[in-house]
Write a structure and sequence with these properties.
With about 180 residues, the chain is α/β, with parallel strands linked by helices. The chain has five helices and nine strands. It is found in: Cytoplasm.
Length: about 180
């Protein structure tokens, strides 16, 4: 992939017929985390008028390059959304739950104070990001939990058709689209 100069991977999404929801297999998640290029999970449906795009951003990092990558993802998604049927852009950030072992090992530890502090940090980072791009607050979501649980749940709730995810390797790696389209770069 890298030596061939490819900048995109297309993969058919697994769709549950009864739920009409996309199911992510362990192989999908491995690809999404490790692929050095964006991955489009493609499902065979037309793009709806007023569809929704979901951008999963890393709000916890103190590394400046993460902010630049977040901004690049949001910018590219907004550009794509403007070209595709009045697509709404939503941002999502997931924050971790209190580690149980800390609460057990440190009786004086207050999980609610910890959760409030972590959520507050994520909300401030999300506010700064959304304001930079003029995104309304109701289009941003900061949820407690693991990204691999929070993001698909929110995508299903919003019926999002495009999703961008971060890889642990710091590359934007996942975009789900209802039909394959080519973007000029």
């Amino acid at each position: 992939m890298i030596s061939g100069g490819h900048d995109l991977v297309l993969k058919m999404a697994h769709q549950h017929d009864r739920l009409e929801a996309v199911i992510f297999t362990p192989t999908d998640w491995h690809l999404l985390r490790k692929c050095p290029s964006p991955v489009w999970m493609v499902k065979d449906q037309p793009w709806p008028e007023g569809g929704k795009a979901l951008v999963a951003v890393n709000l916890a990092s103190e590394e400046p390059y993460h902010n630049a990558l977040n901004e690049k993802l949001v910018k590219e998604t907004i550009e794509l959304a403007e070209q595709v049927n009045h697509t709404e852009v939503h941002l999502v950030g997931a924050y971790p739950v209190t580690p149980i072992n800390i609460a057990i090992e440190l009786p004086e530890f207050d999980p609610s104070v910890y959760n409030d502090a972590i959520r507050g940090q994520h909300l401030l980072a999300m506010k700064a990001l959304r304001q930079k791009f003029g995104i309304n607050e109701n289009m941003t979501h900061v949820e407690k939990g693991l990204p691999e649980e929070v993001i698909p749940d929110l995508a299903e709730h919003l019926q999002a058709g495009i999703m961008w995810f971060w890889a642990r390797s710091d590359a934007p790696v996942f975009q789900q689209h209802s039909s394959a389209t080519r973007r000029n770069r």
